[in-house]
Amino acid sequence: MTIPTDTAPATRSRTSGSGSGSGSGSDFARLSRRVTEAGLLERRPGYYTARLGLVIALLAAGWGAFLALGDTWWQLAVAAFLALMFGQVALVAHDLAHRQVFGSARRSEIWGRLFGNLGIGMSYGWWMNKHTRHHANPNHEELDPDVSPDILVWSTEQARNSRGPARLIGGHQALLFFPLLTLEGFNLHVSSVRALRSPSMKKRGLEGVLLFLHIVAYVSALFLVLSPGKAVAFLAVHQCLFGVYLGCTFAPNHKGMPTFTGDDRPDFLRRQVLTSRNVRGGRLTDVMLGGLNYQIEHHLFPSMPTPHLRRAQVVVREYCAEIGVPYHETGLIRSYREALTHLHRVGEPIRQRRKES
């Protein structure tokens, strides 16, 4: 297990019988009973009706402003606003994937594809597959796709064995982390389209049609309303800021927390708590991070509605103290500092190799 120097969908929780003694006596089972008895797993249809309605209205208002303004450089302000809205749509799609909104898988998939594929050009099926594997084994270097060494390296062992872009970038990845996030929006679109070639993706035809409609409508709107130069500038600002916002939303959650390899796989509760970091903050933090600032609670109870996570934190934190499980929580700025410090530290083998060559 790799521990940083400065730190101590599944769409539903699939592991109520996992971990240190499956069954009613496990640590997680006892915690789950407390959470259930507190009513924290009950659905919040009113909250989600208001949230989905507000996000749709703001997204529509952004595109309405785009059409009303016409061919002007003020459109770059609209691009920044729509980047924020695309991030909020992605967070709604995340909640839909975890069935926080609807109990029905069919309804969740329908709305998830509308928000993901059609709304922001991100394949719901591709992301769902990737995110499910992440939730099952967070920060496991062989099993979690979010810590695979494609571009960045997440442990010294990955750094020693790095090849290609990871070897080129890894030595200075802490400095390059935020600049690389400007490409994350483009990466989501490209990965979504590439995933359509996979025969394992469900409803590839529907996914492809919705992605095609989004791309055509998006590009057509830009080049019909704006001059070519302004259209390219709008696209760059919009997609780069979208990538930065989305990356900043997810980066504090696990980056720089312990990683696992091979059979080093503790029970469910410890697997989720030890690899996750909570971010302190008020209601604005809750809104901007979509509730993912309560990452520990979210990983323990993926189907828990977002507005219940704040209350669940009190229960989970107290329970972890009772059973002696480290519970890591920090401020937003420090969460990025911890992540970047970890990225710099694990890149040392690459820097050392360059000095020796």
TrEMBL record:
<dbReference type="InterPro" id="IPR005804">
    <property type="entry name" value="FA_desaturase_dom"/>
</dbReference>
<feature type="transmembrane region" description="Helical">
    <location>
        <begin position="208"/>
        <end position="226"/>
    </location>
</feature>
<protein>
    <submittedName>
        <fullName>Delta fatty acid desaturase</fullName>
    </submittedName>
</protein>
<dbReference type="GO" id="GO:0016717">
    <property type="term" value="F:oxidoreductase activity, acting on paired donors, with oxidation of a pair of donors resulting in the reduction of molecular oxygen to two molecules of water"/>
</dbReference>
<feature type="transmembrane region" description="Helical">
    <location>
        <begin position="76"/>
        <end position="98"/>
    </location>
</feature>
<keyword id="KW-1133">Transmembrane helix</keyword>
<keyword id="KW-0472">Membrane</keyword>
<feature type="domain" description="Fatty acid desaturase">
    <location>
        <begin position="72"/>
        <end position="330"/>
    </location>
</feature>
<feature type="transmembrane region" description="Helical">
    <location>
        <begin position="232"/>
        <end position="251"/>
    </location>
</feature>
<feature type="transmembrane region" description="Helical">
    <location>
        <begin position="52"/>
        <end position="70"/>
    </location>
</feature>
<dbReference type="GO" id="GO:0016020">
    <property type="term" value="C:membrane"/>
</dbReference>
<feature type="region of interest" description="Disordered">
    <location>
        <begin position="1"/>
        <end position="28"/>
    </location>
</feature>
<dbReference type="Pfam" id="PF00487">
    <property type="entry name" value="FA_desaturase"/>
</dbReference>
<feature type="compositionally biased region" description="Polar residues">
    <location>
        <begin position="1"/>
        <end position="10"/>
    </location>
</feature>
<dbReference type="GO" id="GO:0008610">
    <property type="term" value="P:lipid biosynthetic process"/>
</dbReference>
<keyword id="KW-0812">Transmembrane</keyword>
<dbReference type="InterPro" id="IPR012171">
    <property type="entry name" value="Fatty_acid_desaturase"/>
</dbReference>
